[in-house]
Amino acid sequence: MKVEVLGTGCAKCKRLAKNVEAAIKDLGIEAELVKVDDITEIMDRGVMLTPALAVDGELRVSGRVADVKEIKEILQG
């Protein structure tokens, strides 16, 4: 599983990344966490509001910080 946090490094982006790390740890799953901070790549994916969360290439959250509970639900699919 590939989990991507898209954002330019703002406080909200960092908080989302920490929540993703906590969710992965809590679930005990194997997942690759990638932080995408290149604004061109973010825009190429159609993301206009950061932070955003993508799982296996599918955009799941955009423009807000998802909490750990919500991220766990997304990751469990």
Structural class by helix and strand composition: alpha+beta
Strand content: 15-25%
Tell how many strands the DSSP assignment holds: 4
Radius of gyration: 11 Å
How would you write the strand order of the largest sheet? 2-1-3-4
Helix content: 40-55%
How many angstroms separate the termini? 11 Å
Characterize the main sheet: 4 strands, mixed
Mean pLDDT: 96
What is the count of DSSP helices, taking H or I runs of 4+ residues? 3
Any key phrases for this structure?
single chain; 77 residues; alpha+beta; 4-stranded mixed β-sheet; 3 helices
Q: What does this protein look like?
A:
This protein is an alpha+beta fold and 77 residues long. Helices cover 42% and strands 25% of the residues. It is built from three helices and four strands. It has a four-stranded mixed sheet with strand order 2-1-3-4. The mean pLDDT is 96.
